[in-house]
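[RESIDUES AND BACKBONE]
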Amino acid sequence: MTDTIRPRRSALYMPASNAKAIEKARSLNCDTVILDLEDAVAPDAKDMARTQAVEALRAGGFGRREMVIRCNGLDTPWGADDLAAAAQAGPDAILVPKVNSADDVAAYDRAIQAAPAHTRLWAMIETSHALFALKDIAEAASTSRMTAWVMGTNDLAKEMRFRQTPGREPFHAALSMSVAAARMAGLVILDGVYNGIDDEPGFEAICEQGVDFGFDGKTLIHPKQVDICNRVFSPSAGEVAWSKAVMAAFNLPENAGKGAIRVEGRMAELLHLTQARQLVALADAIAAADSSLSGAA
């Protein structure tokens, strides 16, 4: 399946067992709402969370926000029922945990085959097995609904037994290789969560690092993280201006057919033109999305 350009700067997990949290999500400035049936929900609340997630989607009221349901795995007592209910509810995407192989992608794809055509499959990359199968998992996008990956950095840290340092040095290899594999297959990829809810400087620094790594956005655990995340993952005014200058320069008759030109004292190649078009398209999509949310607030 293909996917259009849309902002995914901020993807906020909301426990589907918490009706107040679901209602609050209707007014938050996040790009994506993930109604969570998995980690954020206790075992004795799983059935209730599933029912509330489905009811919330049917009720609507989320505006242009992308709606995602994170299900429990097929290897759990709740996974099959979660996937069947999510498929019937028809969210924008269904997020599945601990994908270790292309076979896992195929199994989840079969489990949601009754979902509407617009419903995509998103996969969590959060295990050591997945890190050694990134290429195969990414290539499974060509034969499935899968269009996005989400990094599960807490699960990776638990499994690999490393410390979550301020600069995330132990994660660097996993993060960069995951981004590379996702881009190879044309997938969206979102960075993992930041656990320091009250550490705004630390959170902003990690968001900046996520942009540096090439992520499209970041998953969040608290509404107070949304505004910082949106700002950092939005192209800056300077980046937009430079991109528009590159596009304009390549459109000049005297530059027709050239592979490299000089723009405002800097070299710009055709690859920079491609990047410029992508960035301007994203900036335009962000402007339209933010305007839509402001109007709905």
Q: What stands out?
A: The chain has twelve helices and ten strands. The chain has two domains: 10-232, 237-296. Residues 270-296 form the longest helix (27 residues).
